[in-house]
Design goal:
Layout (H helix, E strand, L loop, with lengths): L10 E4 L5 H12 L3 E6 L6 H11 L4 E4 L5 H15 L2 E6 L15 H22 L3 E10 L3 H4 L6 H21 L5 E7 L6 H6 L2 H9 L9 H12 L10 E4 L7
Parallel strand pairs: 1-2, 1-4, 2-3, 4-5, 5-6, 6-7
Helix pairs in contact: 1-2, 1-9, 3-4, 4-6
């Protein structure tokens, strides 16, 4: 299946696109010809990435700083993006995080709400405000997690809960938007190295133990997730909606 230039003339927004999985997806879409906008909060994109995007697309990278859990900020950012690019063809809701590991017995309510906000509220808010910019035939791709399938590792119950909710959001929204020809799908990555998530929250010993459970014998990398996102964004997946694509090297089967 050939994707080169298949997204030429399309515009994509990748939230949390400054690093890790989001950056990998943004670069893959750029290499396929899509004009790229990203949001970031703590992980500002580096110049090499911005240069790569512009080289592949002929357009400078549009980069907007945003706390995606704050309604007014999301609304203002989407309005600014609309004035800049006019429309969206692809929305990738990638913002998310663990915040910190905590057992439910030890977790205060504020931390619980923070975890749900960064993973679930951010997806709702961006989708809600971006929908008027998305053309019929557009694509929405939500980044969930294997944790939503299996409950995650120790101290990640709140995170797993928020990512499982993304599955329901994806399926419900796919039915709402089907009459407009907009598809809505989710990706559920497993253990993906070279990301701030695992650099921050996973020890070397835990990483090694996790790789031992993966039948393909290695950790994933952002490009593994980007390939699936590229397919869902393309015309090759025009009849695919409400689906969760698992990307975990055979570690878990839904």
């Amino acid at each position: 299946m050939v994707f080169e230039q298949s997204l030429r003339g399309k515009t994509a927004l990748v939230t949390g696109g400054g690093t890790g999985i989001g950056q990998g997806i943004a670069l893959a879409l750029a290499k396929s010809g899509a004009r790229i906008a990203i949001t970031y909060n703590n992980h500002k994109p580096d110049q090499d990435f911005a240069d790569d995007v512009e080289r592949h697309t002929g357009h400078p990278l549009t980069s907007l700083q945003l706390d995606a859990t704050i309604e007014t900020e999301v609304q203002r950012t989407v309005e600014a993006l609309g004035r800049d690019v006019g429309r969206l063809d692809i929305l990738v809701n990638n913002v998310g995080g663990l915040i910190q590991r905590s057992a439910i017995a030890d977790m205060d309510f504020n931390l619980w709400k923070q975890v749900l906000a960064v993973n679930l509220d951010s997806t709702f808010l961006m989708t809600h405000f971006a929908l008027p910019l998305i053309n019929g035939g557009g694509r929405i791709i939500n980044i969930a997690s294997l944790a939503g399938r299996n409950g995650g590792h120790a101290g990640a119950t709140a995170y797993a809960t928020s990512k499982a909710a993304i599955f329901g959001f994806t399926r419900g929204l796919s039915k709402e938007l089907a009459p407009s020809g907009i598809t809505v799908n989710a990706l559920a990555p497993g253990f993906i190295e070279a990301t701030p998530f695992h650099d921050t929250f996973t020890t070397a010993e835990s990483k090694a133990a996790t790789v031992e459970t993966i039948p393909l014998g290695r950790a994933g990398v952002p490009e593994d997730v980007a390939g699936a996102a590229l397919w869902l964004a393309s015309e090759h997946a025009r009849f695919v909606t409400g689906t969760v694509v698992d990307i975990n090297g055979g570690q878990y089967f839904a």
